[in-house]
Specification:
Radius of gyration of chain B: 24 Å
CATH topology of the largest domain in chain A: Rossmann fold
Number of helices of chain B: 14
Structural class of chain B: mainly alpha
CATH class of the largest domain in chain A: Alpha Beta
Strand content of chain A: 25-35%
Number of strands of chain A: 19
Shape of chain B: globular
Largest interface: A-B, 25 and 21 residues
Oligomer: heterodimer
Radius of gyration of chain A: 24 Å
CATH architecture of the largest domain in chain A: 3-Layer(aba) Sandwich
Number of helices of chain A: 8
Chain lengths: ~375, ~280
């Protein structure tokens, strides 16, 4: 268990700038999930923390000590890889014992540690087997066992569930969470799957093209996304974004499609006619009288819910998705209303969330280190 | 689905076996017959009356003009083992350096090794002799194997094997605290064990069969290899002790065959093992 601090971390590979200044502070025992699309730099960030890459700039502090220059082996961290990275010629026991053997731990202590970790993960019957005799889920557990046995200050997870089938993923997700809570080890978890992010993280760091978009709890990220990228990344189906303008002295938004929706939570600052992007999640759109006529393109019945894909009149390219429970009403046109209390307001140009004037808790957005890139 | 056996295929294969086995059998049978009879051309397919007595004679005393065969076998064994082991050690280390480390001129070094493959033996042999003479290794046992242990082919082979080792495995070992030599010993070598076994067999046979270089570098008869010994035995036509030559040939065959048979289990199992 330990606290981790990243200060102004940057990484470039030659002319390619992957990370543009990341600042992060992890509390002891916290599980932080770094989430983002492929290529956003999340794996690079993890590898910088692990010591497998050296930062172009910035510092890494573990429990207050500067470890930026240290070798991976000197950092007291353990990593769980996407492809498990088990030593193919060693048994499960030897795989887990290897790191301890190198550190010169006495044989009996090694045996005890490995057996404890194996008990925790249900691996006892498999200790003598080789990795090729195990299933994917079992191999992943061995990889975790190898990390646990080291008793490190920090756990690093690099998309560990990506290679498992959907059902196994759900099961392993819960197991990872249970283990991490039980062991209380500070953890950094990287994934592109937003469901994993929401269920596993104490806090989420959403990365977008090497820059931090939002750092907050899962609920906060879901209910008050800091910008349009985060808004459309978290939540499936993705949030609908509609162009609009600021009207009525900042108290309402007039959608390009026509209707004007008043803000339920207060005035926004800005000139009349200022370009906005209104966000509304598919599950919050309501079908009801007096709404905009949505032209239905596709209905997807999921059993418990129905997804309706359509577009607003005059904007055939912009798809709108509505999620309704139960079966959908049939028809080529459905009246769709935007409930004001579920509306998200973003600045059209920058994509940033616009909060009402005098809002008490603006969404936390990690200030990227502002300097010329 | 065919139920009756494929006579044509079996017949062709049997013919192939006979084609290969016949000369070996002839030599084996001939070694038990009378040398004068053989010289006249009376080489029969059936074992003769001399039995296996010629083997003992040849092992302990050789024939005229040669060392005892046991001595020549020993020289050949020493040379073949030294060459096989030496080649493997050097090429594993070079391939390891080229694949897992970053150093200036790395690419140049690799290409230099690669380019030596283009030099035929005839081009290399005189300069090699000169260098060995300067080192004082002419007519010494070490001169037999030292020049032969640098191998571009083996280096290339191991390079391909090492490059196929997944990056994550290297990183996991780094996180576990394995330094470069540890990583080589604990991970790279076991993972390449099948390749090393296969290469050992090939290089042993290669070393065993060396003729030109040992002939050049050693004039002292007590450094004769078995291959050179056989050629020496076939001296003047009328005086050749053919039974002895054949017996020696059979004895020269045995060690490589034994090595192949013993190592076969190792490297077939390794190659069939499956995903890493």
């Amino acid at each position: 268990m330990a606290s981790l601090e990243l200060l102004g971390l940057r990484k470039s590979f030659g002319d390619t700038h992957v990370l543009h200044g990341i600042d992060l502070a992890l509390a002891d025992g916290e599980m932080l999930v770094i989430v983002g699309a492929s290529g956003c730099g999340k794996s690079t960030l993890l590898r910088l923390v692990a010591g497998l890459e050296t930062p172009t700039a910035g510092t890494i502090l573990l429990d207050g000590a500067d470890i930026s220059a240290r070798d991976p082996a000197q950092r007291d961290m353990a990593m769980v890889f996407q492809n498990y990275a088990l030593y193919p010629h060693m048994s499960v026991f030897e795989n887990m014992a290897y790191g301890l053997r190198i550190r010169g731990m006495p044989r009996d202590d090694i045996r005890r540690s490995v057996e404890e970790a194996a008990a925790l993960l249900g691996l006892q019957p498999m200790l003598a087997r080789k990795p090729r005799q195990l299933s994917g889920g079992q191999r992943q557990r061995v990889a975790m066992g190898r990390a646990i046995v080291r008793n490190p200050k920090l756990f690093l997870f690099d998309e560990p569930l990506s290679n498992l089938d959907a059902k196994l993923r759900v099961q392993m997700r819960a197991e990872i969470r249970r283990l991490q809570r039980r062991l209380g080890v500070t953890s950094l978890y990287v994934t592109h799957d937003q469901v994993e992010a929401m269920t596993l993280g104490d806090r989420l760091l959403v990365l977008h093209q090497g820059r931090p978009a939002q750092l907050a709890t899962p609920i906060e990220v879901f209910e008050r996304p800091a910008d349009t990228y985060v808004a459309t990344f978290i939540g499936a189906p993705a949030m609908n974004l509609l162009p609009a303008t600021l009207v009525h002295g900042g108290t309402a938004a007039q959608l390009a499609a026509g209707p004007t929706v008043p803000f339920a939570d207060g005035r926004r600052a800005g000139p009349e006619g200022h370009a906005l992007t209104i966000g509304i999640r598919p599950e919050h759109l309501a079908i009801g009288p007096g709404g905009i006529a949505l032209e239905v393109d596709l209905i997807e019945p999921l059993g418990s819910e129905t997804l309706i894909h359509g577009h607003l009149p005059g904007a055939p390219a912009d798809t709108l998705v509505v999620k309704l429970t139960g079966h959908a009403p049939s028809g080529e046109r459905l009246p769709v209303t935007v409930p004001p209390e579920h509306m998200h307001v973003f600045d059209a140009a920058s994509g940033r969330r616009l909060e009402p004037i005098g809002a008490e808790n603006p969404p936390v957005r990690v200030a990227a280190v502002q300097s010329a890139d | 689905m065919r139920n009756r056996p494929d006579y044509l295929a079996h017949g062709a294969l049997a013919l192939g076996v006979v084609l290969f086995a016949l000369p070996v059998w002839l030599v084996l049978a001939g070694s038990t017959q009378d040398s004068n009879a053989i010289a006249r051309g009376d080489l029969s397919l059936l074992p003769g009356s001399s039995g296996l007595s010629v083997y003992w004679r040849v092992l302990t005393r050789g024939t005229m003009g040669t060392e005892p065969v046991w001595h020549m076998l020993l020289i050949s064994l020493g040379m073949a083992l030294a060459i096989a082991v030496g080649k493997i050690v050097i090429s594993v280390l070079s391939a390891y350096a080229v694949v897992f480390f970053r150093f200036p001129l790395r690419q140049a070094a690799f290409w230099l090794i690669f380019i030596t493959l283009m030099l035929p033996v005839e081009v290399r042999i005189i300069p090699t002799y000169t260098v060995m003479a300067d080192f004082g290794l002419i007519n010494r046992f070490n001169g037999l194997w030292i020049p032969l242990i640098a191998s571009a082919t083996a280096t290339l082979l191991f390079r391909q094997v090492f490059v196929a080792i997944p990056d994550e495995l290297v990183e996991a070992a780094r996180m576990d605290g394995a330094g470069p030599l540890r990583f080589l010993r604990d991970i790279v070598l076991p993972v390449s064990a099948a390749n090393i076994a296969a290469l050992f067999v090939i290089l042993f046979v290669y070393g065993w069969n060396q003729y030109l270089w040992p002939l050049l570098v050693a004039t002292n008869p007590n450094l004769d290899t078995i291959v050179i010994g056989i050629v020496k035995m076939i001296g003047v036509e009328t005086q050749t002790d053919w039974a002895a030559v054949m017996a020696t040939a059979v004895l020269a065959l045995l060690p490589p065959v034994i090595v192949v048979v013993l190592m076969q289990r190792w490297f077939v199992a390794g190659l069939v093992e499956g995903e890493k």
